[in-house]
TrEMBL record, chain A:
Single Gene Ontology BP annotation: transmembrane transport
TM region(s), chain numbering: none
Membrane topology: Multi-pass membrane protein
Span of domain ABC transmembrane type-1: 74-270
Name used for this protein in its record: Multiple sugar transport system permease protein
InterPro entries per the UniProt record, alphabetical: BP-dep_ABC_trans_perm, MetI-like, MetI-like_sf
UniProt entry keywords in alphabetical sequence: Cell membrane, Membrane, Sugar transport, Transmembrane, Transmembrane helix, Transport
One Pfam family per UniProt: BPD_transp_1
GO cellular component terms, semicolon-separated: plasma membrane
PROSITE patterns: ABC_TM1 (PS50928)
Record's subcellular location: Cell membrane
Family: Belongs to the binding-protein-dependent transport system permease family.
Automatic annotation (TrEMBL), chain B:
Organism field: Nonomuraea wenchangensis
InterPro entries attached to this UniProt entry: ABC_transporter_permease, MetI-like, MetI-like_sf
Gene Ontology annotations for the cellular component aspect, listed alphabetically: plasma membrane
The protein's name in its UniProt record: Multiple sugar transport system permease protein
Protein keywords: Cell membrane, Membrane, Sugar transport, Transmembrane, Transmembrane helix, Transport
Transmembrane segments: 38-66, 106-131, 143-163, 195-218, 254-274, 294-323
Automatic annotation (TrEMBL), chain C:
Coiled-coil annotated residue ranges, if any: none
Organism in which the protein naturally occurs: Nonomuraea wenchangensis
Pfam families: SBP_bac_1 (PF01547)
InterPro entries documented for this protein: Bact_solute-bd_prot1, SBP
Annotated signal sequence range: 1-26
Domain of life (superkingdom): Bacteria
The protein's name: Multiple sugar transport system substrate-binding protein
The entry's keywords: Signal, Sugar transport, Transport
Length: 284, 333, 435
C-alpha cells in the first residue's frame, strides 16, 4: 500500500525478486518433498531419496483413513481449535480494549501477570493442570479431562496472553480521534468498541485469530495426555502413522497434506481481511 | 506473579480518558462507579481463565519444586516429603552432570532463541514489506508463505526429519550427490549439526507468523505519510527506513517478545525431531526439563529447573520492556 | 444500558466457556457402573486401527461370557507412558492397562498398581500357569508382581539367507567372533553385515544388558545401586560400539536409526543380520517372504546359550496390570483371567507373532515354527529380566543415551577407547538419583 506516485526503482524490484524467489524455495522444498513422498509406495519412500517418484501411486491417500481414524481426529481438531479461537479472540478483545482505553488500578499487574504466564514451560504445569481438571471433575461432575471441552479451555488460555498483548498494540495504533468523534456522536464505550475499534482493527484481529487457531491446531504435549481415542486431535493423532514397528512416511505426508488443505484454503479466504486496512474501518 | 516489573510504558497508559467524553446524560445509578468497574468486567473472563489454567498450576509447580516427587510419591503430591532447596541445589550444582547439562542446555537455548527470533523477524518483516505493494501473484505467494504455519507442527518436523536423514535424506542427496559440495555424508540429527537442523526447522515453521503479524500491522500505516514523503523526494528505501520501520515499532516490540518466549520454550520441534533424548548441541531447555521430569520420573527437580527458567525469563522480559521503551516519546506500546 | 449489556455478554461468555467444556465428552470414561471396564492397550499390530479390529471381537467374547462391557482404547506408544503417569498422579485412569514389562518395577514403586498376591493369582488360575522368566519381569524381586505377563518376546538373530549364501557362509554365527567374521565377509559393496538402532535408547539398553551379562557384569549391584562403570559393563558397551567402530560391520548411518530403519535395510537386503525381537510381521510388511530369512539364537561367547554368562536375550514383552483405583476390581480380575486364558493367549499371540507367557498355551503347534521355536527356547532357557529396580527408566535414559552418543562418535570417525566408554558411563551413573 505504499503507493508512491513514482514506480519503485530497479534496485527495489531486483531485491524483491531475488528475496522472494529464495524464500519461496526455502518454503516450498519441504512441501514438495511431502507431495512427492505422499505419492510413493512405502518401499520407495524409505529408500534413497529421489526427487520424482519412480512408481507413482495414490494409494497412501486411501490408506490414511484406515491406519488411524483420521476423519475423527480432523473433526476434533477443527472443533477444538475453532471454538478455542472464537472464545479466545472475543475475550482478548474485551481485555485489550480495557487496557488500551482505560486507566485503572491493577492494570499493570494484569498485563505483566498475563505475560508472565507465557514464561513457564508447559511441561511443568501439564501434570498440575491435569490434576486440577480431575479434581474439578470429581467435585462437580464436569469432565474436563479427556474431553474436548478441557482442551478448548486449555488452548484458549494458551493463546489469550499474546492475543491480548497484540491486540493492545493494534488498538493503540488506532487514532484516538476516531474514538472522540464517536463519543461526540453519542456512542458509549461499548458502541465505540464495536463500531470503531473492532472494524478498524480487523487485520489485527484476524492475525490474532489465526495465531490462536494455529496454537490450538499444532499443540502436541497437552493433547497427548488430555485426550483419549474419541477426542484425540490431529497433531497427536498423526503420530499414529509411526507405529512400534514402522513409520508410514508416505501416509504421514499424505495425511498431513490432506488435513492442511482446508487450513491453507481458510488462510486464502481470510487474506482479504488481512489487507482490509484502516481506511475501510474508518469509514464506518 | 508479584514481581513488580516496573514498566512505564505499558500499553495505553497515557490514554486516561475513562468512559470516553461521555458525560452525556445523567444516569440514575452512579455512573462513576459503573465506569470504574467496566474495565474490570472486561478483564474478568481473561483473568479467571488465566487463573485457572495458568496461575494455579504454576503455583502448584512452584510448590512441587520444593518437594521430592519421584515415582515413589507422585501418587499423592500432598504427602510427598519436602526437600527444601535440595532440588535447586542439584539443578545448579555445576560440579555434577545434572547441573552441567542444565547449563549447557541453557546456553544452547539462548543461542537458539536469538538466532531463530532474529531470522524469523528478518524474513517475516522483509517479506511483508516486499509484498506491501501489489504485484501479480502476490495473493498466491502469500498463501504459499503461510503454508508452513498451516501444517501441524508434527507434520512439519517429521518432514524435515525425513529430509535430514543421513543416508536417504534429501538434504544430503543435494549436498553430496547432486552438488558435490561434501564428500562425506554428514549427520544432521546427531552431533553438532543437530543444532543447525533444529534452527532451520524452527525458522521454517515460525517465520510465517512474523510475516502475518507484520503484514497486518503494515495496513495501519496511513497512506498520507508515504505520499508526503514521496513529495519530499524520499525514495522507496528511504520511505521504508523513515516511515515503515518506525511505524512497525509498536508491533515489533510485542512480536519479538512473543517469538522469543515462544522459541525459548519450544518443546514440539526438538521432541519430534530427536525424540526424548536430543543430542547435546540441540538439547533445548524444555526437552531437558521433560527428560528430567517425565522420562526420569523426577518432577521435583524438573519443577526446580522450570522455576529457575521462569525467573530468568522474567528478568529478561522486564529488561527488554524497559530497554525498548526508553528513548521513545510516545507511550503507545 | 450498553455497559450493562457488555457485562451480560461477558458473563454469558464466561458461562459458555464453562458449558462448552463440560458438555462435550462427558461420561466417556464409563467408570461408575460395575458393568463396564476401561482397557488401555498398547499398539502391538501394524496400526492402531488394526489393533482395534483384532481386539474388538475378543472383547465382545468377554462381554458375552461375563456381561461386562470393555471400553477399549489403543494408546500409541508415544503417549503411553505420559498417559500412565497422568493416570497415576490423578488416580483417574483405566481399570486394566498394558505396560511394557521393563516399566513394571518403576510403576510398581508408585503404588498405583494392584499387587498380585496369592489371592489375586488364585482368581486367574494360579501363578504356576506363567513362564518363570516372564513372571520375573513383572516387578521388583521379593515383592508380589505388579502385573501379569500377556505377550512375551525375545531377541534372536535374523539373517538374510541369500546374502549368507552369496558370501559363502553356510550357517548362522553362534559366537560373537563368528558373527564379526561373517559380518566382515558380508560388508562389501555398499552392503553391511549387521544393523543396529543407534538412536533408540531402549534397544541400546536391551543389547548392552545382554552383552554385560555375558561379561559377567550387571548394571546394578545386589543392593540395587547403579554399577555402570564395572569392567564388564564397560567392555560390553565397547563391544557393541565396536561392531561399528572397529569391526566396521555396521553402517555408520545406523547411528541415527531409531524408527526401525534397520529392519527396512534388512528387508531390502542392504544388511545381512539384525538382532531383533519378533521381526516377522514387519519384515513381511516390507515385502520379504518368510523363507528369505532365517532365525538363530543370539550369539554367546561359548556358542551354547544358557544361563549365567550365556544369557542371550532380555525378557521382552507386555504385561497386563490392574489399576488399584479401579471401582470394578472384580471385573478387572475377570478380564485378566480371560486375557491370560489358554484360548485368548493362543489367538492373540498368534496374531501378534509373540510367544504366550502361559505354559499351556505355549504348547500349541503354532508356536513351534522354526522362527518361534528359537524365541520360545530362548525365553525358556537363556533370557534374563532387565534390572528390576525402580530406577529402571532412569537407567534406560542415562545408559541408552551414552550408547547413542558413542555410536554418534564412532559414526563420525572418532576413536572409541575404553577410557571414553568409561567416561560416558561414569557420567551416566552420576545422573542417576542418589539414594
Amino acid at each position: 500500500m505504499s503507493s508512491a506516485p513514482t514506480a519503485p526503482p530497479r534496485s527495489f524490484l531486483w531485491a524483491r525478486a531475488v528475496f522472494l524467489t529464495l524464500l519461496s524455495g526455502f518454503v516450498l522444498v519441504p512441501v514438495f518433498v511431502m507431495v512427492s513422498s505422499s505419492l510413493k509406495p512405502l518401499q520407495d519412500v524409505s529408500g534413497r531419496f529421489r526427487w520424482l517418484p519412480s512408481g507413482l501411486t495414490i494409494r497412501p491417500y486411501f490408506d490414511i483413513w484406515d491406519t488411524v481414524p483420521l476423519a475423527r481426529y480432523f473433526a476434533n481438531s477443527v472443533v477444538v481449535a475453532g471454538v478455542a479461537t472464537v472464545l479466545s479472540v472475543i475475550i482478548a478483545i474485551f481485555a485489550a480494549y480495557a487496557v488500551s482505553r482505560y486507566d485503572f488500578p491493577g492494570k499493570r499487574v494484569f498485563t505483566v501477570t498475563v505475560l508472565s504466564t507465557q514464561m513457564f514451560p508447559g511441561i511443568l504445569f501439564l501434570l498440575p493442570l491435569f490434576l486440577i481438571y480431575v479434581n474439578i471433575g470429581n467435585a462437580t461432575g464436569i469432565a474436563l479431562y479427556g474431553s474436548r471441552g478441557g482442551l478448548i479451555l486449555t488452548y484458549l488460555t494458551f493463546s489469550l496472553p499474546f492475543s491480548i498483548w497484540m491486540l493492545i498494540g493494534y488498538f493503540a495504533s488506532i487514532p484516538r480521534a476516531l474514538d472522540e468523534a464517536a463519543a461526540v456522536d453519542g456512542c458509549g464505550p461499548v458502541a465505540t468498541l464495536f463500531r470503531i475499534v473492532i472494524p478498524a482493527a480487523i487485520p489485527g484481529i484476524v492475525a490474532v485469530a489465526v495465531y490462536a487457531f494455529m496454537t490450538a491446531w499444532g499443540e502436541v504435549l497437552f493433547a497427548s495426555i488430555m485426550t483419549d481415542d474419541t477426542t484425540r486431535t490431529l497433531s497427536v493423532g498423526l503420530q499414529g502413522y509411526a507405529t512400534q514397528n514402522d513409520v508410514y512416511w508416505n501416509q504421514v505426508m499424505a495425511a498431513s497434506l490432506t488435513v492442511s488443505v482446508p487450513i491453507v484454503a481458510g488462510f486464502l479466504l481470510l487474506q482479504r481481511y488481512l489487507v482490509a486496512g484502516l481506511t475501510a474501518g474508518a469509514v464506518k | 506473579m508479584a514481581t513488580a516489573t516496573q514498566d512505564p510504558t505499558l500499553p495505553g497508559r497515557r490514554t486516561a480518558r475513562p468512559g470516553g467524553a461521555g458525560s452525556r446524560r445523567t444516569r440514575r445509578r452512579s455512573p462513576r462507579l459503573r465506569r470504574a468497574s467496566l474495565p474490570y468486567l472486561l478483564l474478568l473472563p481473561a483473568a479467571l481463565l488465566e487463573l485457572l489454567v495458568h496461575l494455579v498450576p504454576m503455583l502448584t509447580g512452584i510448590l512441587a519444586s520444593f518437594k521430592e516427587l519421584t515415582q515413589f510419591y507422585i501418587r499423592d503430591w500432598s504427602a510427598a516429603p519436602w526437600r527444601g532447596l535440595e532440588n535447586y541445589r542439584v539443578s545448579v550444582d555445576l560440579d555434577a552432570p545434572v547441573g552441567q547439562d542444565l547449563l549447557n542446555s541453557f546456553f544452547v537455548t539462548c543461542v537458539f532463541s536469538v538466532l531463530a527470533v532474529g531470522m524469523c523477524w528478518l524474513l517475516g518483516t522483509a517479506a511483508a514489506i516486499f509484498m506491501q505493494e501489489n504485484f501479480r501473484g502476490r495473493g498466491l505467494l502469500r498463501a504459499v508463505f503461510l503454508t508452513p504455519y498451516a501444517l501441524p507442527v508434527y507434520a512439519a518436523a517429521i518432514t524435515w526429519a525425513f529430509m535430514f536423514q543421513r543416508d536417504n535424506g534429501m538434504v544430503n542427496h543435494v549436498l553430496v550427490d547432486q552438488l558435490g559440495l561434501l564428500d562425506e555424508r554428514p549427520f544432521w540429527l546427531l552431533g553438532d549439526n543437530s543444532f543447525v537442523a533444529l534452527a532451520v526447522v524452527a525458522i521454517w515453521k515460525t517465520w510465517p507468523f512474523a510475516f502475518l503479524i507484520v503484514m497486518a500491522a503494515l495496513q495501519n500505516i496511513p497512506k498520507e505519510l508515504y505520499e508526503a514523503a514521496a513529495i519530499d523526494g524520499a525514495g522507496i528505501w528511504q520511505q521504508i527506513r523513515k516511515i515503515t520501520m518506525p511505524s512497525l515499532h509498536p508491533i515489533n516490540r510485542v512480536l519479538v517478545l512473543v517469538l522469543f518466549l515462544w522459541t525459548f520454550n519450544d518443546f514440539n520441534t526438538p521432541y519430534i525431531l530427536f525424540g526424548d533424548s536430543a543430542p547435546a548441541p540441540a538439547n533445548l531447555i524444555s526437552i531437558h526439563i521433560y527428560q528430567s521430569s517425565f522420562v526420569t520420573w523426577n518432577f521435583g527437580t524438573g519443577s526446580a529447573m522450570s522455576v529457575l527458567l521462569l525467573l530468568f525469563l522474567l528478568v529478561v522480559t522486564a529488561g527488554y520492556l524497559l530497554v525498548t521503551s526508553r528513548g521513545r516519546k510516545t507511550a503507545d506500546v | 444500558m450498553q455497559k450493562l449489556r457488555v457485562a451480560a455478554a461477558v458473563l454469558a461468555l464466561g458461562t459458555l466457556a464453562a458449558c462448552g467444556s463440560g458438555s462435550t465428552g462427558a461420561g466417556e470414561t464409563g467408570k461408575g457402573t460395575p458393568k463396564t471396564l476401561t482397557y488401555w492397550a498398547s499398539n502391538q499390530g501394524p496400526s492402531i486401527e488394526a489393533d482395534k479390529e483384532i481386539l474388538t471381537p475378543e472383547l465382545k467374547k468377554f462381554e458375552q461370557q461375563t456381561g461386562i462391557k470393555v471400553e477399549l482404547e489403543v494408546v500409541p506408544w508415544a503417549d503411553l507412558l505420559n498417559r500412565i503417569l497422568a493416570a497415576t498422579t490423578s488416580g483417574r485412569g483405566p481399570d486394566v492397562l498394558n505396560i511394557g514389562n521393563t516399566w513394571s518395577t518403576s510403576l510398581q514403586a508408585t503404588g498405583a498398581l494392584l499387587p498380585w498376591d496369592a489371592a489375586a493369582f488364585g482368581k486367574i488360575g494360579g501363578k504356576d500357569r506363567f513362564v518363570d522368566s516372564a513372571l520375573a519381569s513383572a516387578g521388583a524381586e521379593g515383592q508380589d508382581p505388579a502385573a501379569v505377563p500377556l505377550y512375551s518376546m525375545a531377541y534372536a538373530l535374523y539373517y538374510h539367507k541369500k546374502a549368507f549364501a552369496d558370501a559363502g557362509i553356510d550357517k548362522p554365527p553362534a559366537t560373537w567372533d563368528e558373527l564379526v567374521a561373517a559380518g566382515k565377509k558380508l560388508s562389501t559393496g555398499g552392503k553391511w553385515g549387521l544393523g543396529v538402532e543407534g538412536s533408540n535408547l531402549s534397544n541400546n539398553i536391551h543389547q548392552v544388558f545382554v552383552l554385560a551379562k555375558q561379561h559377567g557384569a550387571d548394571f546394578f549391584d545386589a543392593s540395587g545401586k547403579p554399577a555402570f562403570t564395572s569392567d564388564g559393563a564397560v567392555a560390553a558397551v565397547k563391544q557393541y560400539i565396536d561392531f561399528m567402530a572397529t569391526d566396521k560391520i555396521v553402517a555408520p548411518g545406523n547411528a541415527e536409526y531409531a524408527q526401525n530403519q534397520s529392519l527396512q535395510d534388512f528387508a531390502k537386503g542392504d544388511t545381512a543380520m539384525i538382532l531383533w525381537q519378533t521381526a516377522a510381521t514387519t519384515l513381511e510388511s516390507h515385502g520379504m517372504k518368510p523363507e528369505e530369512w532365517g532365525v538363530a539364537p543370539v550369539p554367546v561367547p561359548s556358542g551354547a546359550p544358557g544361563t549365567g554368562q550365556n544369557i542371550n536375550s532380555m525378557v521382552a514383552g507386555i504385561n497386563l496390570a490392574v489399576f488399584k483405583n479401579s471401582d470394578n476390581l472384580d471385573g478387572a480380575l475377570q478380564f485378566v483371567k480371560f486375557m491370560t486364558g489358554d484360548e485368548e493367549q493362543k489367538i492373540l499371540n498368534k496374531t501378534y507373532g509373540s510367544i504366550p507367557p502361559v505354559k499351556t498355551a505355549q504348547q500349541d503347534a503354532a508356536f513351534n515354527t522354526p522362527d518361534l521355536a528359537v524365541l520360545r527356547d530362548t525365553l525358556a532357557t537363556s533370557a534374563a529380566a532387565l534390572p528390576r529396580v525402580p530406577e529402571e527408566s532412569q537407567f534406560e535414559t542415562a545408559v541408552g543415551t551414552a550408547v547413542k552418543e558413542l555410536f554418534a562418535d564412532a559414526a563420525q570417525g572418532r576413536e572409541i577407547t575404553t577410557e571414553l566408554v568409561k567416561e560416558r558411563l561414569t557420567k551416566a551413573q552420576q545422573q542417576m538419583p542418589t539414594k
